[in-house]
Write a structure and sequence with these properties.
The protein is of the alpha/beta class. It has one domain: P-loop containing nucleotide triphosphate hydrolases (Rossmann fold, 3-Layer(aba) Sandwich), CATH 3.40.50. Helix content is 47%, strand content 12%. The chain is built from eight helices and five strands; from the N terminus they run E-H-E-H-H-E-H-H-E-H-H-E-H. It has a five-stranded parallel beta sheet, with helices on both faces. The chain is globular and about 50 Å long. The termini are far apart. The N terminus is likely disordered. Pfam families: Thymidylate_kin. One of its GO terms (biological process) is dTDP biosynthetic process. GO terms for molecular function: ATP binding; dTMP kinase activity; nucleoside diphosphate kinase activity. Its EC number is 2.7.4.9. It is an enzyme of class 2 (transferase).
Length: 231
């Protein structure tokens, strides 16, 4: 019997929000999920690391400085935590639900590279993950982030570390823009947008919404891409 598949059904959009610790990622991700719901766009919010899984609990203990792990080992655990949800992410998107992801593979790379690990090695475990249609980098200075509540409670919330992370995130944005201008066939196919997150919550929220509206119109017509897979 032939299956009845709705070929006109549009997939959901994968939106990733990245940035320094205390840059407002979780607040803005939650606000975006609520706004999508108000706009009748089915949406789901997920956060990495997912600290509820067995791997996530190991990561949580590490981030709270309750355990110590080799830098390579913790990097691979972060990647494995993303792969735990990869099938679920693809299924949710195929059902027409948009996903807002609070941190993704880019965080995994920049935090590990900032500790001295090679860039190419840090990318390799995440090759083939669902690629986001839009990656938003909430840019805020470490000094500004330090003024916000809860700063310094976890392992990576140190100013020198955050400065290195900020520069690496910016290189991700610039690298993708440069590749696009060159017509580089191996570009990541990720649309990066840098947003000044040092402004008021409302100003940042509106900037994010403008970018999301654009991708909601275009991305569902394209097949879901794979992260860091050359064409």
């Amino acid at each position: 019997m032939a299956s009845h598949v709705d070929t006109n059904k549009k997939r959901g959009v994968l939106i990733v929000i990245e940035g320094l610790d205390r840059s407002g990622k979780s607040t803005q991700a939650g606000a975006l999920a609520a706004r999508l719901a108000q706009s009748n766009v089915p949406a789901k919010l997920i956060k990495f690391p997912d600290r509820t899984t067995p791997i996530g609990k190991m990561i949580d203990a590490y981030l709270r400085s309750q355990s110590d792990l080799d830098d390579r080992a913790i990097h691979l655990l972060f990647s494995a935590n993303r792969w735990e949800l990869a099938t679920s992410i693809e299924r949710t998107l195929s059902e027409g639900t948009t996903i807002i992801c609070d941190r993704y593979a880019f965080s995994g790379v920049v935090y590990s590279v900032s500790k001295g690990l090679p860039f190419s090695w840090c990318k390799s475990p995440d090759i083939g993950l669902p690629a986001p249609d839009l990656a938003l980098f909430l840019d805020v200075s470490p000094e500004k982030a330090r003024e916000r509540g809860g700063y310094g409670e976890e392992r990576y919330e140190k100013e020198e570390m955050q400065k290195r992370v900020r520069e690496l995130f910016r290189k991700f944005v610039v690298r993708e823009e440069d590749a696009e201008q060159r017509g580089d066939a191996s570009k990541d196919d990720v649309t990066w947008v840098q947003i000044d997150a040092g402004r008021s919550l409302e100003d940042v929220k509106e900037s994010i919404w403008r970018e999301v509206q654009r991708v909601l119109e275009d991305a569902p017509r394209r097949p879901l891409r794979r992260l860091w897979v050359s064409h």
